[in-house]
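quick one, three chains, predict together pls
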Amino acid sequence: MRWGLLAAALVASPVAAGVVYSAAAATGLAGFDPRGFSTDRLSRVLGEPAVWESLAWTVRTASLATLLASALAVLVAMTFRRGRGVDRLARTLAVLPLPVPHLVAATTAVLLLAQSGLLSRLGFAAGWLAGPADMPPLVYDRGGLGLVLTLTWKELPFLALVATTLLATRGAALEETARGLGAGPWDTFRLVTWPLLWRGLLPSIVAVFAFAAGSYEAAAMLAPSDPLALPLLTLERYTDPDLARRGDAFVLVLVGLMLTGAAVGLHEWVRYRTTELPG
Amino acid sequence: MSSVLRAGRTAGLLCLGLSALLPMLLLAIWSVGDSWFYPALWPSRLTAESWRALLSGEGRLWAAAVTSMLLAAGTGAMACIVALPVGRALARLDGWRRHLGAALTFLPVAAPPVALATGLQFSFLSLGLGGRPIGVLLAHAVPAVAYVSLYFTGVFAGFDARVEEEARSLGASAGQTFWFITLPLLRRPLAEGFALGFLISWSQMPLTLLIGGGAVRTLPIEVFAFVEAGQDRIAATGALVLLVPALVALAAARLAASRTEVAAV
Amino acid sequence: MSLAKASCGRSSTPQPRDLARAPWDSLASGARGTTVTWRMWRGDPSINAYVDRWVSPRVLQRYGINLNAVEGQGPEIVNQLQVEKEAGAGGTADLVWINGETFHQLRQADLLYGPWSGRLPHAAWVDSASPIISRDFEQDPAGYESPWGTVQFALIYDSARTPAPPRSYAELREWILAHPGRFTHDQAFAGITFLKQLMYALGGGVERFQGGFHEELYRTSSNRVWRWLEEVRPSLWRRGGSYPPGVAELHRLFANGEVDFTMSNNQNEVVTKVAQGIFPATARALLLGDGTIANAHFLGIPANAPNPAGAMVVADFLLSPEAQLEKARSTVWGDGTVLAVDRLPGPWARRFAELARDPRALSRDSLARYARPEVAPEYHERLARDWRSRIRRGGS
């Protein structure tokens, strides 16, 4: 019994080491320029509006992508749930991009979504757009729409996989029972299918949010210069020409890891609620 | 109603097909496209130069692909070896302990790679692991071990330990039981765990960059360098190579799934 | 294979102190059979081809040295060496490609080995009379870096799209206001160099900025830069609310007609990029009459380099007339030589004079006429930092 927690702690220990070192470096106990304990750096960096804008922008972008991917995953799972034929093909296609690295997804997104990308060229050829400026900006755009679309595309396969598995395993039997008890199609969906999907997907949704918020490659290639996505701001500070400012990065590392910690906590809490507690 | 539904299904299928295949098609064209400027829908010239360089091994993509392959295989193997006992121990927990264990294990998976790499760079370098393949391997193993441990936890949750007990009661040693009973039963999960660890290492970038210090040249590092230098043709070629093991792993998993009739997916 | 290569040849390298006294020949023969890891920007296939296919085999054949060129730009190099120093870790790079602010930071933090560059046999032919080569952002290299090549900043435009491009910063301003959305600069080195030239132009010429960093002068002239930028901001690409991350992304915007200009720290980049099919054939380089920044780039040896002797041998080969001539060909790289060509032995001087010139390349005369030196690195660092907080963050 105890071995389990010990093993888990061992697996998590590199993160703990990272937190400890970053905390030490952020408070002047370690890092490029250790001058003894002080919270000056912490309060200075956390007092910068740019840092909070960066965090808010990253959370917003990741949330949007997660919501979009979840909705699409449910749609795919519900629309193509029969065992064979077209449905099977559709599910295979939905899951196909699952192992595509973020780097490849982002590279492709630039070539596809830029104002002079393939979509814009198709629009031009069709006579809908008169030039690159007519294409809505999706790359380096302040709203981060291109990044949201790319992350959605990247995370959809995983959520679609979970959703289709849920429906095929537990869903089928439960719905059968409901129908046997006389429930109509709408009631079956409302009372059985939807709660099952929602609860079953929730932990994966939280996990996907964490992945989306932490992705560096996609942000580096698609995100705007202002507000700067959190991973980009972290690396920009880590390589700042002013050596004294490099330590700022460790404060941002702590912010990033805190966001992760919150997501992981939420993830497990949701799983705890849905698996251990009745109703 | 049903004709609307059918039209919707067809449109959905079309969208899924486009979303899965268009990116690969686009990369394939870019990898041979020369002087391909807006608003041309097709490159004005085609050249196989980047592929020739890749296959003749004189460019840097080939060496990087070999490095990536070795690192990913090493990470996959290491992840399986470590995650097997961890997953088993985790699966034996119950109640809140199970969730605490899972949460701890999930941390390295969910941590932003940039934050993880920045936080770990000092420790790795002071251990003499910086700039060396072994250091990068260990760094990749941090998220990979965690991910595969979670996967094995699920496997062991549905694992029937009575088979092992029976073998033991028939006089088999612990080692014999593991080699002749447990391992064969776990062949498929092990293969999948390996694939999982492999893919995590294969697509990793920030950890490689900061721990490897540029000296360990993996495929994502090279592809990113080419993208950042505007060399789209070479980058697209590398990106396609990055897709190969990913697709092979997925195909193998689907094949195994259909063979064992777990047609849930 | 490449895994094994990166970590071999490390154990029995001589200590730096012995190196300073050892005669060159024994130093070179001691480096035989070792590996030199060279951290450099690896994003240009032309440069990579020169290093991998021309330099590497010669270095191996003549000096028995395995050259391993790996990725890494200025800020990453500083960062890596800094963390290595703090962690007390052995080094991973023997040779680094640096200049200006990177050199400044490395020297400040005492991360470079030296002095060593005066020991190179080929250093005798270096054009030390040229202020661009003998100074690096006004800093005295003091033997801690060896010059490798020279470049000059240029704007790049498409002669088919923009037959009459602006020729000065004043004309550029008018052009930007008359063509909304068609101009921007990147956030990295080239973009900041562009701003630094703008600062020279608005601040009364480069002469006023020479002789170290002056806070007061910086403040007044950078304020002029910010005012200039705020005035044209609504007419910049994306209304000045977003900027491409690096110059390569700006190249992509330019090549596809999203903007009408890009820029480069190397006046010859337009030649290689047209040859690579990345720019349209009608792309041309352009020097603004206010003057454009010319600078040299250098090779340094990290203080913790495992193989400084091997690094010196490689740096010396790179300084040889043969290696400098090959690099200067516009079909190879088009990087300017740091040698005093007229002092070279007969045939070499002739070969340099005979270098074929690409019709797209700028003439040597106009390059020389408009060349302006770099100033103290603090100007670059402060402009970069203040641009980020004042202009980049102020958009809408």
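Residues 84 and 90 of chain A are 10 Å apart (CA to CA).
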